[in-house]
Amino acid sequence: MAYPKVQAAFAAALLIAVPLAPRAADAAATITVVNLDGALEGFNDPSAPDPASTAGGNAGATLGAQRLIAFQRAADIWERFVDSSVPIRV
């Protein structure tokens, strides 16, 4: 079962917290977003996105695609700050 509000809050927290964290000079990690949502929920939600949600550059064609793009963007940012040789799956 997906928790869209929790997912959105997590992504927002990542996007806010990461730029504030000190950056390690040699930090590097591989973070993979794993989609375990069922059909028609979470990252797989086929609903049309709110037109205002594309204003920030999120070009996802569905609400689920926009969620996945936001999560992947947060993971991409975190990769620059986390130093780990172990692949991280979220």
Number of helices: 2
Cα separation of the termini: 15 Å
How are the strands of the largest sheet arranged? 1-2
What best-fitting shape do the alpha-carbon axes yield? Answer: globular
The assigned structural class equals mainly alpha
N-to-C SSE series?
HEHE
Strand content: under 5%
Percent helix, as a range, is: 25-40%
How many beta-strand runs?
A: 2
Poorly predicted ranges (pLDDT <50, ≥5 residues)?
none
Measured on Cα atoms, how large is the radius of gyration? 14 Å
Give the overall pLDDT as a whole number.
84
Main beta-sheet strand count, sense and barrel state: 2 strands, parallel
Essential attributes:
two-stranded parallel sheet; mainly alpha; 90 residues; single chain; 34% helix; 2 strands
Layout: helices, strands, pairs:
Blueprint: H1 4-17, E1 31-32, H2 63-79, E2 88-89
Parallel strand pairs: 1-2
